[in-house]
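Lecture 7 notes: from sequence to structure.
We start with the chain below.
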Amino acid sequence: MKYCFPLLLGLFLFCACNKDEGLGGSSSLEGYVYQVEHSDDNFSFRTETFPAAKKDVYLIFGDNAADYFGDDVEVDNNGLYRFDYLRKGRYIVYSYSEYPDGRKEAVSREVKIGGGANKADTIFIHTGKAYGTSMIKGSVYALFYDGSRKVDEGPAIDADVYINHYGEEMFFERIRVGDQGVFIFQKILPGTYEVWVTSEDPETRKLTPIKQVINVTESGKIYVLPEFEVKARS
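Predicted structure tokens for the same chain:
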């Protein structure tokens, strides 16, 4: 017992003198997290924003992301989170955006905490099947032949359009041209692609691929290809 009191006293003095960021103070930090949902199949990249209920928020003691992770809480139904019993200093608070393939990316805010209640800037995290992706849009126009004689022309309705990664032979998606002659590939990640259709020789019926190469560099963008022109039998 005679050794316990000096040990407890030393621990108390250490905590009392420790001015670093962390738990053990009388300050609080609160803020909001909102979730931006990027749904697919809307052909416009419209998003919906709502409170990020039940998402986790993390706190780092200090202003360096490599510093020691300190605490985490769950966002409430209104998007609000709160950390209590913090000492004065600098902190990083963050939550995660999530890509369709499961990859996560931290969205952070740096905060300087003084005495009493403190607020952090709102965090917006992004989720959804279309997050981080783009679209490739184009059209196909057909010249219709009866033998060697052209008899009509117009949108190539129901024609097949293919897309593959540049340098690869196998396509990873095939879609049909719509009633206006338009096609759209969705959920395209950054990279270089070949988009192609086939043109049919009206006399020999030999099919020839017509290809366009496109480099997708940005997310949330619609890339528009020049119009394809193909021949087909009427």
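Points to note: Helices lie at 4-17. Confidence is low (pLDDT under 50) at residues 1-18.
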